[in-house]
Write a structure and sequence with these properties.
The protein has a domain at 2-70: SH3 type barrels. It is built from two helices and six strands; from the N terminus they run ββαββββα. The radius of gyration is 24 Å and the shape is elongated. The protein is of the alpha+beta class. It starts with a strand and ends with a helix.
Length: 108
C-alpha cells in the first residue's frame, strides 16, 4: 500500500538491540530488541510498507522509523468474558447496595 504525505500511519523502530538491554530484565526479554511503535502523520511525499519514513505525532514531535501500517486500526480489546469476574462484580454491587441501604436506615 502506498501512503502519501499527511496520511495517518504507524511506524516501528528498534530502540535497543538485545546486547544493549539492561542486565536487570528477565533473560527471555533480554534476548529480543526493545521496539518502539507509534502513530503519526507521514511527512514524506510518498512511502510504501517497509520504507524508512518520518512522521509527525499528534502532539507535534517528529519521529522516524520503518512504515508498518497505513491508516492503522485499533484492534485491542479486553479479552474473553471471564465468568468469575462478572460474578464477583455482581456480588460487589449487591454488597454495596446492602451497605447503602443499612446506612440509609441508620440515618432515620
Amino acid at each position: 500500500m502506498i501512503a502519501k504525505k499527511g496520511d495517518w500511519v504507524q511506524i516501528k523502530r528498534i530502540v535497543l538491540k538485545p546486547e544493549e538491554r539492561s542486565s536487570n530484565v528477565p533473560e527471555d526479554t533480554s534476548k529480543v530488541p526493545l521496539e518502539m511503535r507509534l502513530k503519526g502523520y507521514l511527512e514524506n511525499e510518498t512511502a510504501s510498507i517497509g520504507d524508512d519514513v518520518e512522521v509527525k505525532t499528534i502532539i507535534g514531535r517528529t519521529e522516524y522509523g520503518t512504515l508498518i501500517a497505513v491508516n492503522p486500526k485499533y484492534d485491542h480489546g479486553f479479552g474473553e468474558h471471564i465468568k468469575e469476574l462478572y460474578d464477583a462484580g455482581t456480588e460487589l454491587v449487591e454488597l454495596l447496595r446492602k451497605i447503602n441501604n443499612e446506612d440509609d436506615n441508620h440515618e432515620q
